[in-house]
Design a protein that fits this description.
- It contains five helices and ten strands.
- Helix 2 packs across helix 3.
- The protein has two domains: about 120 residues, 2-Layer Sandwich (Ribosomal Protein S5, domain 2), CATH 3.30.230.30; about 55 residues, Alpha-Beta Plaits (2-Layer Sandwich), CATH 3.30.70.
- The protein is an alpha+beta fold and about 190 residues long.
- Strand 9 and strand 10 form a beta hairpin.
- The radius of gyration is 22 Å and the shape is elongated.
């Protein structure tokens, strides 16, 4: 699998073609549906709200989708999806809001405008390498808590939960697979594995 990329925040760009305005929003996948609904309300008078997304599942299956939202079939959503695929983006989607400018663009013009708007949003984005997140429970005695917390901080793992027991602490952490493995190695060195 190629080195996939993603985003951690929303990015925006605009394109104008023959007086039609194309507002492109590149959105993390976990915010995609909510953002689409908000944009439909915010831009009620827009002609179209075209979408494309890519999401990776735990079994590495990539789910993809595109909707033309009333534009001629294949002229808008699919060209944007092809941009996401070509740029190797995952776990994000692009929403392009179109305000019709009075001049028809034709199938080729629409495809260029929508894919161009999506490309501009991606160009404006801060892309990061996609990494699969995992969760792991770190267990330790009370006297080891400071060392465990320090290592969790050094590895930049996110603490999801802490549970104190009679003998120590269980800390549920989440982070990229490589950092979780590094945490396991640290625990192994402390004979806590």
């Amino acid at each position: 699998m190629a080195e996939l990329k993603t985003i951690e925040a929303e990015f925006y760009a605009e394109l104008e073609e023959k007086k039609s305005r194309f507002l492109a929003f590149l959105v993390p996948i976990d915010q995609f549906e909510v953002r689409l609904e908000a944009l439909r309300i915010e831009h009620r008078k827009a002609s179209h709200h075209v979408t494309a997304f890519r999401r990776i599942h735990d079994d590495d299956h990539i789910e993809e989708g595109a909707k033309d939202d009333g534009e001629p079939a294949g002229t808008s959503g699919m060209p944007m999806l092809k941009v996401l695929i070509g740029r190797e983006l995952i776990d994000c989607g692009v929403i392009v809001v179109r305000y019709f400018g009075g001049t028809k663009l034709g199938a080729g013009g629409l495809a260029r405008a929508y894919s161009g708007a999506a490309s501009r949003a991606i160009d404006a984005a801060q892309l990061v390498v996609w990494q699969r997140l995992m969760q792991y429970t770190v267990k330790g005695r009370f006297d080891q808590t400071a060392d465990l917390e320090r290592q969790i901080g050094l590895l930049r793992l996110d603490v999801q939960d802490r549970h104190y027991t009679e003998t120590g602490v269980d800390i549920l952490v989440e982070g990229p697979e490589a950092q979780i493995e590094a945490m396991k190695d640290f625990l192994h060195e402390l004979n806590l594995y």
